[in-house]
């Protein structure tokens, strides 16, 4: 049992969203550098706590293991009710929860198909893999367009303050050409994402994960 959170993750990955949330909370945490694609002791330790060996994985101070980025962020918002992670107002909170699950279930899931098409198609040859990736990428970009049209900035996605939905949107949109697509397809939303990651409370986390964009 540890008094702090233990976050499994690596640079440029979805663990950035949880790292940003823990940073926003000023919660004590340590990072174990780990990813399923990085052999080593971190990956071994990660696989022992999460059979999917996916990141983010968060070990709680009570020893409980949390996986699934949206669930982790919701849990942190509930454990830190005075924080800005989740809106206090029930109407706004409902939309924030909807948005978090939307990103995880739709956008993040599409990334998993693009990264590992062979997991979703038996005996896929290279042409088939590329076709799955191209179709999923187009679908991912359309999913972000719908997200941008559905979740208004007020001025942040979570509401008046930077919160969990902002962090997950800013991180999951980093991959598979989504930011480049949104820059022309949804410029206002694209500007909001840039504004989120430039927020001084979380900017160091984004700069550590995506140094070229810093
Ligand atoms: N459903 C998970 C997806 C997490 C996920 O796919 N993480 C990626 C890194 S960004 C991963 O660990 N992929 C490696 C793998 O699936 O082997 C969540 O929402 O957190």
Task: Explain what the structure shows.
The protein is α+β, with helices and mostly antiparallel strands. 55% of the residues lie in helices and 7% in strands. It is built from nine helices and four strands; from the N terminus they run E-H-E-H-E-E-H-H-H-H-H-H-H. It has helices spanning 15-25, 41-49, 69-79, 90-115, 126-150, 164-172, 178-185, 187-198, 203-209, and strands spanning 5-9, 29-33, 57-59, 65-67. It has a four-stranded mixed beta sheet with strand order 2-1-3-4, sandwiched between helices. Strand 1, helix 1 (15-25) and strand 2 (29-33) form a beta-alpha-beta unit. Helix 1 (15-25) runs parallel beside helix 3 (69-79), helix 4 runs antiparallel to helix 5 and helix 4 packs parallel to helix 6. The structure holds glutathione. Glutathione (GSH) binds next to helix 4.
């Amino acid at each position: 049992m540890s008094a702090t959170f233990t976050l499994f993750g690596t640079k440029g990955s979805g663990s950035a969203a949880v790292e940003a949330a823990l940073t926003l909370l000023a919660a004590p945490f340590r990072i174990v550098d780990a990813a399923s694609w990085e052999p080593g002791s971190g990956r071994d330790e990660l696989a022992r706590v999460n059979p999917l060996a996916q990141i983010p994985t968060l070990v709680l101070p009570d020893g409980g293991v949390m996986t699934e980025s949206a669930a982790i962020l919701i849990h942190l918002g509930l454990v830190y009710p005075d924080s800005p992670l989740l809106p206090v107002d029930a109407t706004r909170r409902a939309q924030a929860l909807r948005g978090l699950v939307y990103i995880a279930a739709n956008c993040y899931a599409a990334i998993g198909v693009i990264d590992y098409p062979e997991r979703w198609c038996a005996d896929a040859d290279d042409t088939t893999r590329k076709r799955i990736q191209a179709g999923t990428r187009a679908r991912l970009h359309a999913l972000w367009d719908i997200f941008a049209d559905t979740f208004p900035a007020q001025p942040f996605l979570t509401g008046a303050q930077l919160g969990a939905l902002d962090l997950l949107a800013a991180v999951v949109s980093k991959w598979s050409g989504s930011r480049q697509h949104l820059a022309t397809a949804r410029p206002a939303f694209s500007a909001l994402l840039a504004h989120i990651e430039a927020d001084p409370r979380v900017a160091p986390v984004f700069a550590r994960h995506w140094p070229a964009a810093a």
